[in-house]
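Students often ask why inverse folding is considered easier than folding. One informal answer: many sequences map to the same fold, so there is more than one right answer. In these notes we will look at a single instance of the problem. The structure comes first.
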């Protein structure tokens, strides 16, 4: 087997030449001469990266908080209302656990590739290397579609949350305020974005941790009314919901499938780490540690939070229906109100509102970087490559922010309904992106085998591969197939539901086939795949990582 490492011609870099404060190699920028993006996103800034080893306890705490905050947003705080109403507590728990396994497999799949090749464009650009340019084209526009339409979903959720206070202000005002915040954070540059994400993540981590503890206390009878709930709502109205009144196992299964789409909206976006890789300090050290701790957020915060919700709120509570356009649709707010606790519901609602701001800002960051990557690959107009002197792609940011104006649809329609529309669109395209990541890895794995490379020499390698990538492909396709099945029930046809769930599924093959015809490019042969461009500094960065992990700070001059 051929290890991926330096050659004799590679320039030597001594340990004392490192930028110790930022853990960055001084010659790293030379690897990406074609892109003016700057590596200014420090470890503590990367809210979606799970953990980076820092040089002191204070910085470790800062980074751990921002890593766990990640992509926790309205999917968990607000979207679970619909999922609980349609699937019941057991269906809710099973659906999120199922999607959690997919999410983890996606992360270890994309992580193995991006840790080796932390290039601008992330997994979109990797698809060009290991599948073909046409596949990268279709995948890139699908991902851009996902991230772009997630922005109005989060903004609609923010308005739904503000309506809780019944302030009597037109919804367009709140959309404008939230939009200015999200766009402003992104236009101020990646450093500001990172700091704000850390602040938002801190709030979310404290909130969800407190809610988990409070939920256990309330369930055991610690509320002001001393009502011990236990598993009462698992018995009545029951663990599963008979969807649309369909009796038997069929009705329960259909309810469970509906949960999967909402769960997909909650989890999609974790692959954001690949888009940040080109701007992260010392990416081959940061990325593996980001990936290894992703299970913490999945198990503790998502699965744990879902379990608590199923204990505290009955699935037949009318406030769970998002058509109520009321922030009480958040299961956590409902549970606290039922417990008779005053003031806390409003405080929690404000916290959930910050999560909507955070998520919309993150989605705008993703969509703009995705568009920049498309332009860099020649799949979008070149003017999207324009950047400021500091390397900020302001043209892409402004263009992507224009699609946020779709959130003004709530002026004439319920904000809860609009949120559901855009959430379904983002979930469907997110699942397609996961499918593409799985396909890209299968090709990547075949290339390694064909060229005789040793996977154990990669910066990150999972023992679950390639089975994890096959699981991602199979489960994402199955979920997509059933994503909008309810429109085919008798007298249940809905144009809006059909379009938001199946339009991306139809567009993807059209984009791929069209690009294949126009580009006239074959699949990349495994024996010709490029594993070397961008790996020139691999051994030097690994040496630095080993020094950091081994506590060898004295050798680094600290």
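Output (designed amino acids):
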């Amino acid at each position: 087997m051929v290890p991926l490492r330096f050659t004799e011609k590679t320039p030597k870099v001594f340990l004392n030449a490192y930028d110790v404060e930022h853990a960055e190699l001084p010659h790293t920028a030379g690897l990406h001469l074609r892109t003016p993006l700057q590596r200014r996103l420090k470890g503590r800034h990367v809210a979606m990266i799970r953990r980076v080893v820092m040089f002191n306890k204070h910085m470790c705490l800062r980074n751990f908080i921002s890593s766990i905050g990640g992509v926790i947003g309205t999917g968990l705080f607000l979207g679970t209302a619909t999922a609980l109403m349609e699937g019941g507590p057991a269906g809710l728990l099973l659906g999120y656990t199922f999607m959690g396994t997919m999410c983890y497999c996606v992360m270890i799949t994309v992580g193995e590739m991006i840790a080796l090749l932390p290039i601008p464009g992330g997994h979109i650009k990797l698809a060009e290397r290991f599948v073909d340019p046409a596949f990268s084209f279709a995948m890139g526009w699908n991902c851009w579609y996902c991230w772009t339409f997630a922005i109005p979903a989060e903004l609609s959720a923010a308005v739904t949350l503000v309506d809780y206070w019944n302030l009597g202000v037109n919804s367009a005002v709140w959309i404008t305020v939230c939009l200015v915040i999200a766009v402003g954070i992104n236009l101020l540059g990646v450093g500001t974005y990172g700091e704000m994400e850390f602040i938002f993540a801190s709030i979310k981590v404290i909130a969800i941790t407190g809610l988990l503890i409070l939920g256990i206390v309330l369930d055991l009878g610690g509320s002001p009314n001393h009502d011990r709930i236990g598993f009462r709502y698992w018995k009545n109205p029951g663990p599963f919901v008979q969807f649309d009144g369909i009796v038997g196992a069929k009705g329960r299964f259909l309810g469970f499938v509906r949960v999967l789409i909402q769960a997909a909206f909650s989890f999609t976006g974790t692959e954001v780490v690949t888009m940040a890789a080109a701007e992260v300090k010392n990416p081959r050290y940061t990325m593996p540690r980001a990936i290894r701790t992703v299970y913490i957020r999945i198990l503790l915060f998502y699965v744990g939070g879902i379990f608590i919700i199923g204990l505290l709120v009955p699935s037949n509570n009318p406030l769970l229906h998002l058509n109520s356009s009321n922030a009480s649709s958040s299961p956590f707010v409902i549970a606290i109100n039922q417990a008779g606790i005053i003031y806390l519901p409003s405080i929690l609602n404000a916290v959930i509102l910050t999560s909507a701001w955070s998520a919309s800002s993150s989605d705008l960051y993703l969509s703009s970087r995705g568009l920049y990557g498309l332009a860099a690959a020649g799949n979008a107009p070149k003017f999207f490559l324009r950047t400021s002197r500091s390397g900020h792609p302001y043209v892409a940011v402004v263009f992507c922010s224009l699609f946020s104006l779709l959130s003004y649809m709530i002026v004439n329609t319920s904000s809860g309904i609009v949120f559901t529309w855009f959430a379904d669109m983002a979930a469907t395209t997110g699942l397609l992106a996961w499918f593409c990541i799985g396909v890209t890895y299968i090709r990547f794995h075949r290339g390694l085998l064909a060229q005789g490379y040793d996977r154990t020499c990669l910066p990150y390698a999972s023992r679950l591969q390639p089975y994890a990538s096959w699981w991602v492909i199979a489960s994402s396709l199955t979920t997509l197939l059933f994503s909008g099945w309810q429109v085919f029930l008798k007298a249940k046809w809905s144009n809006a539901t059909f379009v938001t769930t199946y339009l991306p599924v139809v567009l993807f093959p059209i984009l791929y086939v069209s690009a294949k015809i126009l580009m006239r490019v074959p699949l990349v042969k495994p024996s010709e795949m490029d594993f070397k461009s961008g790996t020139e500094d691999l051994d030097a960065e690994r040496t630095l990582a080993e020094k950091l992990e081994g506590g060898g700070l004295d050798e680094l001059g600290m």
